[in-house]
Amino acid sequence: MADSPTDTTRVFQQIHIDVARNSTDDFNPFHDGDKWDRIRGNPFGGPIVLGFQLESLAEDLVNAVRRAEGGHEDTALPFRNYQFTFAGALRTDEAFTTVVKPSVRRTASAGSPQVANRVVMRKGDGLVLLGHVRDTQTPLALADATLPLPAQTPLEQLEDRSVIADSGWFHKRKFMSNGNAKNLLAGSLVHQADYFDELEDCVNFPDMFPVSLISCALLERAHATGHDFYAQPLVYTTHHISVDRRLVRGLRSADALHILVSPPEYVAPADRGLVKPGTGQQRYRCLGLLADSSVLFRADLTLAPIG
Question: Based on the number of CB atoms within 10 Å of its own CB, is 105 exposed (0-12), middle (13-18) or buried (19 or more)?
């Protein structure tokens, strides 16, 4: 059982970051204990925790609150939406607390039904992450997105690390792995046996494991274009993610996941958070598809340069 989600002090050590980044193939030097100081203008003074690592912990703490309230997963609300702003970076060995507010339930008479929890992570000198986790009938992120694929193109025929003709979207192929999912959980300070237990025949991939592989896709896309990660560092500023939990619950090890990443779109400057006010941002739209083209997740992400 997870710890109480409210006001429990936690600390990530470098080993937790290493486990999380290795389990998701995230090679961003911001998280690397040997390379973080090569980043030009790095303001953080050491390696920082992965954004998806924080969100993996948030997912588990929301689940803990829902269990404590005696609630059961509402099959009429199959989409879980993670809407987060990264307000500050969390370094290794830096104490932080997380507060998950009680669930707020809205009925159909007041609009579209949903169950929502507000999440706030804080460290000594301010906010780290804040936002909401909402269960809804339909996805809130990229609800109208269409697949950027040529007609009748089997996903298995797309080359790994390739650009899709005409659309310009990048394709990255990954595979589900019980071991990697367990390591992301452990690296995120989550009790892995709540999700995987071979002796109990329990296989329950958390929402954030397949979604966390977006970082690998983004990094490989940037690397393929010659991006200099030391001279042009980028950090996440917002995540808006919708996950089809019916599909996530059915995932098994070795299932293929096809991650599609849009070309960048330049959007309004950030006015708060990790970067200086007025800093221009890049928006990426991402889709996670299963072999039959079912949409496992939709993600609308913004990144901004540091410095």
Answer: middle
